[in-house]
Design brief:
- By secondary structure, this protein is an alpha+beta fold.
- The chain has two domains: 40 residues; 129 residues, Distorted Sandwich (Glucose Permease (Domain IIA)).
- The chain has three helices and 14 strands.
- The strands form three sheets. An eight-stranded antiparallel sheet has the order 9-5-6-7-11-3-2-13, with no helix packed on it.
- α1 packs antiparallel against α2.
């Protein structure tokens, strides 16, 4: 479990104890107890089996695939996948590929519905790029309507492993993953994926492009 769960959970347990001490009313104690249980559950951090193999790109988060599309940038094409995390999904984020972090940039912004395409531009977000050796993969942690905090534990120069925990987004959000255009997608719109274990795509020849 992420330590935030203990902080939130303990806080509401204390509120419940005070409410019982002051009122001895079960209905008044019930709400903070339920909220304490919710936060302990929300900040769960289950272990995941990370797939092994050359050129594999795994999901950075749990959720539902909402977009799979090839888009053009000034420096070339990319395959972009958008994954929406609802409030019931695990919100611990993981690294999609092993390599070296070349960009870790946080941008303040709005908190519009993460399902809207413009949220990828205007919402608060963190952009991370990883040099996987021969190719690079970028992904964004994007805040949503309920999300009010993005946690990213990576900095430029860090060496990371595929599936490694790297942060979280609190209370509903999305992650966007930008992969080389040559990537063979392994999921489609509507699929549900798990962070660190679901394969989003694979590079031909094990990533030698």
């Amino acid at each position: 479990m992420v330590r935030d769960g203990f902080f939130y959970g303990l806080g509401f347990v204390i509120v419940a104890v005070i409410a019982w001490y002051v009122s001895h009313l079960l209905w008044l104690v019930a709400l903070p107890v339920v909220l304490a249980m919710f936060f302990l559950w929300f900040f769960r951090d289950p272990s995941r089996k990370v797939p092994d193999g050359p050129g594999l790109i795994v999901s950075p988060g749990d959720g539902k695939v909402e977009q799979v599309e090839w888009i053009e940038f000034p420096d070339g094409g990319r395959l972009r996948m958008t994954i929406f995390l609802n409030v019931f999904d695990v919100h611990v984020n993981r690294v999609p590929v092993g390599g070296v972090v070349t960009l870790a940039e946080h941008n303040e912004g709005q908190f519009m519905n993460a399902m809207k395409p413009e949220s990828a531009v205007h919402n608060e977000q963190t952009l991370i790029t990883i040099d996987a050796g021969g190719y690079s993969v970028s992904f964004k942690q994007i805040a949503g309507l309920l999300a009010r905090r993005i946690v990213c534990n990576l900095k430029v120069g860090d060496r990371v492993e595929r599936g490694q925990r790297m942060g979280l987004i609190k209370f509903g959000s999305r992650v966007d993953v930008l992969m080389p255009a040559e990537t063979n997608p392994k999921v489609k719109v509507g699929d549900r994926v798990k962070g660190g274990s679901s394969i989003l795509g694979q590079l031909p020849q094990g990533g030698q492009i």
